[in-house]
Each structure stands twice: as structure tokens, then as C-alpha cells.
Records
---
Amino acid sequence: MRLVAGVMLIIVFPFLVILSILIRMESKGSPLFRQKRVGKGGKIFIIYKLRTMRLSNEPINVNSVISSVIELKKLDSLRITYIGKHLRKFHIDELPQLWNILKNEMTFIGPRPLIISMAKREYYAPRDENIRPGLTGLAQISSLSEIRGYNVSKLDKFYCKKICLMLNFLIIIKTIVFIIRKI
């Protein structure tokens, strides 16, 4: 797996450099987003993604947003950059996670790498910590925009209980189909 990740990282590196330049042209700050996540055995690691949002101190146009609790989500969506919208649509923002795979912190297929605060919540806790989180998995390919919280946890727990070669093969196929449908 690590060899495959290394080769893929070499192949996509020029593309990542170009995207990093475009991200920097549109928004200040590092083109990489770094965040602490919980990995195998409860070990904390830094996950890498291409940054898709403006920094919190960058000005955004809030004229179209009414100040109410319902509109807060819209305000947050205004922080997404133009290029970030496209990176998210095709999940290109996750390519730097190949580095996490190369470092043996993640694998290609597995449960989602949890944010520390989420890992502490009761309904996430029983998940099998002996499995490395994955770049893709059941939760990642199951209507990403619609599943949240407990449903993600259920899918991750199901994967951890039923992990096998056939399930991994199906997840790879579904991931490819999922991304092609976005095109």
C-alpha cells in the first residue's frame, strides 16, 4: 500500500503544485489544511488536505446572508473558495492524504479518520481502533452530503466488523463510480 501511495504521490505531485499555486492566488495562507485526527490505536496524527476555504480572518461578502441561526450554514459556505468548490466536488482536496498513507497513518480503504472531538463522543467510541482510517470507505461513498454523525459511525462500525477483500473491492468500485458521476 505504501509503495502504491508513493508512486501515486509522485504522479500527482506536479498537479498538486499547480493547485497549490491556484489556491494561494485566490486566498491567503497555506494551500494545505492540517488537522489532528484519531488513527489506529487511538494515536493522534495530522491529516493533510488541500485548503478549500478562506482563512477565518479573510473578509467575505455577507450582504446576502440574513443573521439567524438557520443562515449560519450559508455564512460558512461563503468561506468556500471558487477553486475549493471544485476540489471538494471531485474530492481532489483529499489527494495530500496519500502522504498520510505513505507515513502508514492511513490506508486506502477504511473508516473515516475522526476529528478528536468526534472520537470522544459516545456513539463513535466503540469503533475498532485496530484498523487504520482510510482515504475512502463506506461512509465516504454513501451520499456524502446527506450523512452525518451517527449514520457515519454506523457505516464505519459495519466496515470494521465485516472487513474483507470483497468488501474492499466493492468500495473501490463504488468510489470510482461515485467520482465519475460527479463529472
Note: Strands lie at 32-38, 44-50, 107-109, 114-115, 134-136.
---
Amino acid sequence: LQRGDVRIACSQAVARSFLLQEIRTMREAYPFVKYHVSVMDHNSAMQALINYDIDLVLIFKPHLTAELRVVTSTGQRLVAIMAHDHPLAGSSSVRLRECMDYPIALPDRNFGGREIIEQRLVTSSMEMDVALEANSFDLLAHFVLDSQAITFQIEIGSLLCQADPRWAVRPISDADTPYGPLVLGYLKGRNLPLATAKFSEQLARSLDALRTLPLVEN
């Protein structure tokens, strides 16, 4: 494997942290492989896969269809992201109801995390004070700094915030949390190019390893 092209569509949650690190790791072994990364919502990613615009998807909560061959799937908890000095930051986990006492910075409806929150609210009397709605997790995360606002993300999408002392990342307690799958897959019946197949194997190993890692409390 000296050269090749990896075309992958991914959810925004994995682009800057998990996927970027995996590309760096792969490049250490295969420095001449090129990568084409498309960050998009799960519906657009699936359509790109079907249209042969990309070869591999790493997306959260896709609508599973007959066209998708799943390599691996891992459950993702929902976490609350807030400033390090937020009143809820002293707890090891938080309830969704507790979060609703504060302004909410909400991902838009193209993101699976938003779907999890809305599913929970449908069966309760909770109401959100939505201070900001955006399709950028970077914007949402920086908005909650120096404020009492809270935003939400899946575990793997909070890795950068976990590593930065400006933020506190707290899991939503299991009483409130439906788990959503992060899915790595490709088009059923298609033979992946060698570079893409190697990268897929690496991603699968790393995702399996993440299942055993606890959420880092900062």
C-alpha cells in the first residue's frame, strides 16, 4: 500500500477529534495515501454513499437501509457541555431536567443529538429556553463559555472539550439517556479500494477500543 485515496463522509461530531487523529495515525504508516473528507448530516452522507461520491461513512444515527454494510457500530451516550465553573459542573452526571433550568445552545435538526433530546422532551413536560441554535458544534461549544448556557453532544464529539479545562463535560444520567449508534459502513456489495479497506479496519479497531474508556471528568 504505497498510494491510494480514501473518500469518507462523517458526522461533524467525529471530524475534528477522532477522525483527524485516525488520519494522522494512518499517515504515519502510509504517508502517500490521500484523504477526502466530507462533513455532512447522516441523510446526506447516505445519499453520497449510494451515489458513489464517497466510499465509507462514519455517521451517528443513520437510517439503516439495505444498501448499508455495517462494519461496526458503537453506542454513544449524550453528554452536556458547559463552562468549567457552571453550577452543574460539580456533579459527576446531570439529569436532562436539570439542564432545562439554564439557557440551551442547541444543534439543529440535521444532527442526531438533537433528535435524542427531542425524543426525550416529547414524553415529558420539560421546556427548553433555546438561546442559540446552530449547525456548528464549535460555535455551540464556545457559546457556553463565560455563560450559564449548556449544549449537548455525543461522547466521541466531546473529546476536545474533555481535554480542555475551560469546559466541563458531564454525561446525562442513564435514567434520561437513549443510546444512539455511531456507525461505520460502506455500500453493500462493493469492494473497497485497498487504502479505504485498511483505513476502515483501523477505524473499527479504534472504535472498539473506545467502548471501554470512561468519560474523562475535568
Note: The beta strands are 4-10, 33-39, 56-60, 68-76, 78-83, 103-107, 129-134, 150-154, 167-171, 180-187.
---
Amino acid sequence: MHVLVVEDDSLLGDALQAGLRDRGFVVEWVRDGNTADTVLRSGDFAAVVLDVGLPGRSGLDVLKRLRSRGQAVPVLLLTARDAIEDRVTGLDAGADDYVVKPVAIAELGARLRALVRRGHGLASERLVAGELALDG
């Protein structure tokens, strides 16, 4: 399973990359929001692990841009922000899961597998069939 990890902390990013690879994932790791946005435009990923506090462009901005392009790749927000408001904001912005750091690699792997098992779902609340559009 090809996964994009977007994490600016070198120690954590390295640990996530190594831990997920040990569990059979193919991992690409980038360290800032601008690079993540660029890579997501052209990359084909089964899932994304996305930090919220990133240099260049916030994780939430990356997520909103991803969803505005209609990309339905599952996104797991992995962040130190643990307030209920932050969780609600992240999920409402289009995240499929929200996990507060620190997280056990085994749990992260299981959550990624579960997201991919559920399929890619809808990239937005808007359903379009021909000229008919329904907003959620």
C-alpha cells in the first residue's frame, strides 16, 4: 500500500516512515505543505498521513485543496492538536480520521488499512449525476 506521510519533524517523520515500512507499507515522506500539495497533484496514493502544523502551507489547507480538486484519497490527520474544536474542524475539512500524537505505529497501520478497506468514498458532500447536483 503506497502511503504519503507529511510530517515536518525529522525524528517523527523518520520513525513513521520506518515503522510503516516494517509493516509492509510503501512510504513517501515529505516535510512541508507546499511539497505535499504538489506531490498529491500527481501522486497515486492509497492514503495520506497529514500533520496539521506544517511549514509553507498548513495541513488543513493541503486537505482543503485536495478535496476541492475532487481527490478522494483517504486522509488521516496526525497532530498534537487535541481540542474537540480542532478535531471537528479537521474532520469537517475532509479528513477521514483524526489521531492525536503520540500514536503507536501498530495502531496507525491498522487505521490506514481500515481507511483503505472502506474505499475512497466521496471527496465532497456534493453528489453530481449529469446536470443534477445535490449538496449535503
Note: The chain has a mean pLDDT of 92.
---
Amino acid sequence: EALWTRFLPASRALAAQVAGGAIGDVRMIHADFGFQTEFAPESRLFDPKLGGGALLDIGIYPLNLAFMICGPPLAIEAMANLGPSGVDEESAILMHHDAGRLSMLSCSFRADTPGTARIIGTAGSITIDRPWWAASRFTLHRGEGRDQVFEYVHRGGGYTDEAEAFMAMIRTGRRESDIMPLGESLAILETLDRIRARWGLHYPGE
């Protein structure tokens, strides 16, 4: 389980702002993660034997944000372009969540994408600066002239906060994190399976 972005101070502060009603009722999330790279069939990015594909490598980040803010999806629509090795090289995903919330997510190995994320609510919105998956800065928008910027320290390669949380759990004998519960990890994995099943993408050994 490597969803280190959940543990970043900026991510936790953002989640608290949303939960506290800073932007009203959340209606939509837009998030992308994409970079351009050359096709290399032996690379873990493209080799199906190594779990290749954009969805599992970088699509997990937009999906994690949608889960963090909106919870698990009730319905999923997804389209992908599969490359010569049979794995997804780019995809677009639309999910419908509880209370009518929508998340629009994309990932790509074929193009650089803006790398920002936006959470839109009935009373405002939040923009997470690029690279949003390694968040250190976000802006709360609540009408003209009412923007509020939040900045946080991004330590190390991004894993420091997750490692510290894990060490604290070991010291106190806890077996589950409040920040990233076990059930949510399983639900995200199941959602990844549901998405790629729509494309007929299967990995060796399944």
C-alpha cells in the first residue's frame, strides 16, 4: 500500500477543509496525471507481466483523490487506448458517487497533462497546484477577491509523512490507519479491477 499522498500535510489539510464545509457540498472533482514517455516493451510501465499500464502506475493517484473526497463510486464509465503490449497507455474515467457527486479523472503515458486538480463545491472550489499528487500548496476559492492560499512543507521524496505515521502505529500497537483504512485500500483495488475489466485488460496469472 503506497498511497503516500494521503499522509502529506497538504492532503490532510485539504480533506479537513472539505469536511468542514469550506466549499459547501462537493459536486465535482477534476484530476489528471500524465507524462510523455517512449514505448519500451521491457519497461515495467508497458510490460503486462510487471503490471504495466498507466492506470495502475499513475491513474491510482486521481482515483485516490476521488475516494478521499467522494468515497467509493456507485457507477463507472471508462475508456482507454491500449498500446502494442496490450496495456493501457492513457484513459479517461468518469465516476458517479453518493449524493450525485462526480469525478472526472485521466492518466496518460503519451502526453504531458496539466498536473493540477480541482474540487468544486456549491460554495466555492479548491485548486491543488502542480504536481497535485505531491501537494504542497492549494488555493481555496470562495468568490472574487476571497482566495486563500495554503502552503505546506513537502519533505523528502514524499514518503516521510507516511513512514512516520507507520512508525507511530508500530509504537502504539495499532494495526489500522485512520488516514488510510484497510477497507478503503481494498475498495480502491476493486475499483481498479472494475475499470480495467471494461477494457478487457487482464494480467498474466489472473
Note: Helices lie at 9-19, 54-70, 160-172, 182-197.
